[in-house]
Automatic annotation (TrEMBL):
InterPro entries: Plipid/glycerol_acylTrfase. Coiled coil: none annotated. SMART domains: PlsC (SM00563). This is 1-acyl-sn-glycerol-3-phosphate acyltransferase. Keywords: Acyltransferase, Transferase. GO terms for biological process: phosphatidic acid biosynthetic process. It comes from the Bacteria. Transmembrane segments: none annotated. Pfam families: Acyltransferase. GO terms for molecular function: 1-acylglycerol-3-phosphate O-acyltransferase activity. The keyword Transferase applies. It comes from Acidaminobacter hydrogenoformans DSM 2784. Residues 34-146 form the Phospholipid/glycerol acyltransferase domain.
Length: 196
C-alpha cells in the first residue's frame, strides 16, 4: 500500500512541475524481470522514472540515503535497498539477485554515481555481472532533462539487451558490455545539453 501511495504522490507532483514524456513504452514488458540501466543526471532520476513506468521496481541506492529511520522507511517504501559503494557489497548483490529471481526488476546506475557530463563515466561491472548471473536482460533507459521548473523530462526506454558469453566472462567483459549500453543511452541525450 505504501509503495502505491508514494508512486501516486510523486506521479502527481512531477506532472505538475515537469512535462514528462515517456518514449519507447512498447519496449517495457512488466512480466519480464530485468536490470533497468539508466544514466544518472540528478537525484530525482529514480523517483521520476519509478513514478511513470507502469509497474513497481526495486532500485539500488547508496547506503548513506538510509542513514536515519525516516529516510530508511521512505526509500525502502519506494523499493530501494542500500549498497556500499566503497566496497564489493556482496549483500546488495545477493539482494538484487533475489529480487530478480522472484520476478521483480531492479534499477542500477551503471556508473555508480551521478554524472554531470555528456559522456559516460567508467562503468561498473556489477550491472553486467548481476544480469548474467540472474539470467535476465538489461533495459537501457535515457533520462534527459535540465530539471528546471516546468521543463520537459524525456524518458526513453530502449529495447532489451541480453548479454551472451562463451565460457566464463571476466570483469573487463562485463565492463565493456555495459560501456556499449551506456554509449547508446548517452547518444539519445538532447535536452540536458542545455544544462551543461
Amino acid at each position: 500500500m505504501l509503495k502505491v501511495l508514494i508512486k501516486f504522490i510523486f506521479n502527481l507532483l512531477y506532472r505538475i512541475i515537469y512535462r514528462v514524456e515517456l518514449v519507447g513504452l512498447e519496449h517495457w514488458d512488466p512480466s519480464q524481470p530485468k536490470i533497468v540501466c539508466p544514466n544518472h543526471i540528478d537525484y530525482k532520476d529514480p523517483l521520476v522514472f519509478g513514478s511513470f513506468i507502469p509497474d513497481y521496481i526495486r532500485f539500488m541506492a547508496k547506503k548513506e540515503l538510509f542513514s536515519n529511520r525516516l529516510f530508511d522507511w521512505f526509500f525502502r517504501g519506494c523499493g530501494g535497498f542500500p549498497v556500499d559503494r566503497t566496497s564489493n557489497d556482496i549483500g546488495a548483490i545477493k539482494t538484487a539477485l533475489r529480487f530478480l529471481k522472484d520476478g521483480e526488476s531492479v534499477l542500477i546506475f551503471a556508473e555508480g554515481t551521478r554524472n554531470p557530463g555528456l559522456t559516460p563515466l567508467p562503468p561498473k561491472a556489477g550491472v553486467g555481472m548481476i544480469a548474467h548471473k540472474a539470467g535476465v536482460p538489461i533495459q537501457p533507459v535515457t533520462i534527459d532533462s535540465t530539471y528546471k521548473l516546468f521543463s520537459k523530462v524525456r524518458i526513453t526506454i530502449h529495447p532489451l539487451v541480453t548479454l551472451k558469453y562463451e565460457g566464463k566472462p571476466s570483469v573487463a567483459d562485463y565492463e565493456n558490455a555495459v560501456l556499449g549500453i551506456l554509449n547508446e543511452i548517452y547518444a539519445h541525450i538532447e535536452l540536458y545539453k542545455g544544462r551543461v
